[in-house]
Amino acid sequence: MSSENEPKKCLGCGVILQDQNILQEGYITSLENDICQRCFRMKNYGEYQVVTKSNEEYLNILKTVGKTKDLVLYITDLLNLEEDFTQIRELLPNKMILVLNKKDVLPKSVKEKKLIKYLEDRNIHVEEIIVISCNKNYNIDYLLKIIKYYQTSRNVYVVGHTNAGKSSLINKLIKNYSTNTQELTMSPLPSTTLNMVNIEINEYLNLIDTPGLVDAGSILNHVDEKLVKKISPRKEIKPRTYQLRKNQSLIIENLIRIDYVEGSKNSFTLYISNDLKVKRLLNILNNNDLKELNKTTYNVKYDEDLVISGLGFIKIVNKGVIDIYIDKDVKIFTRKSLI
Q: What are the angstrom distances between the C-alpha of 185 and each of 38, 42, 153, 165, 182?
């Protein structure tokens, strides 16, 4: 229960509840209720109301977390690993467990040990790296054990980018290990959690969910709701491999065009949602589809991934030169092959 000096917060997203202005976040018809109208409509009708908050607000929340000595779970999406973890580490000097989520969307052939070694080789300074799947309940028991081992107090903070699966993990921990009936609002769309939310799991563990950091370069921020759901995979990805020669191209769902402009015959394997359509062009010289989009040229080395933030990645075997046409605000980078 909230005291008079402590405003009541939504149990779904953490926003302060209010019954005065229907246009402002946190609106609720009666302060006797526990979740805001936005969360209620998202949970019951699948309706999503856009809320714009700056990353500065989120970073200030993380700075507050960084001043505690509490354990932090950093949740990241295996399909969309961040390019750089340095910023998070600068804000959060706390003990940290790196949780690699959504193993279920990667092919079963991908070995867990290889994923962990890939991250260890990047010199990310964390206490432990663990691979999990909330959907399949994979490694959740082990995660709870290492939380117990490393926690410095009852409070454990959960952080990560939007759509990494923070709320899904917390809801799974509630279901598996708690008598608490609270449930966080979940959605594949950005900015679902708006403020810190306290969730009591048991007598020794209190999880604190934080708003997801908004990756401005994610393609999810630049498409409509229908495409967001199509881009976000719900089951195991079936990799699609295309052999391309010079002057051939791939077009993904009218979102991105990839022209292979220089190099010997090459293999492009797409790790993206099965729901996205891919079209192959055998001669780019006679086709101008999507060429109105922003063009960037990449010199790809042997065994590198081309990562499209929020969409997934493309494994490229040989070196070559490629032109990418995509929305100018979507972030793309290359890295050593993950798989």
A: 10, 8, 26, 11, 10
As a whole number of angstroms, the distance between CA 48 and CA 29 comes to: 18
In a domain, 207, yes or no: yes
Residues 35 and 65 occupy one common structural domain: no
Predicted TM-score of the model (pTM): 0.81
Average pLDDT over every residue of 20-48: 71
- The helix (run of H) or strand (run of E) holding residue 320 is strand 320-326
Task: Indicate whether 93 and 179 sit together in one domain.
Answer: yes
User: What local confidence, expressed as pLDDT, does residue 238 receive?
Assistant: 96
pLDDT at 196 > cutoff 90: no
CA distances from 225 to 27, 46, 112, 160, 333 (A): 22, 11, 32, 21, 25
Confidence of residue 124 (pLDDT cuts 50, 70, 90): confident
Are 167 and 43 in the same domain?
no
Averaged pLDDT for residues 237-244: 97
Residues 252 and 295 grouped into a single domain? yes
What letter represents residue 117's amino acid? K
Instruction: Rounding to the nearest 10 degrees, give the CA dihedral for residues 69, 62, 195, 6.
Output: 50
Q: How many domains does the chain have?
A: 3
- Whether 121 has a pLDDT exceeding 70, the answer reads yes
- The verdict on residue 220 lying in a domain is no
Going edge to edge, which strands form the sheet with 266-271?
A: 240-244, 266-271, 312-316, 304-308, 332-336
How far is 337 from 339, CA to CA, in rounded Å?
A: 6
Q: Which domain holds residue 270?
A: 240-336
325, 332, 296: which is closest to 311 by C-alpha? 332
Provide the pLDDT confidence category of residue 192 given band limits of 50, 70 and 90.
very low
In a shared domain, residues 82 and 93: yes
Q: Which pLDDT belongs to residue 313? A: 97
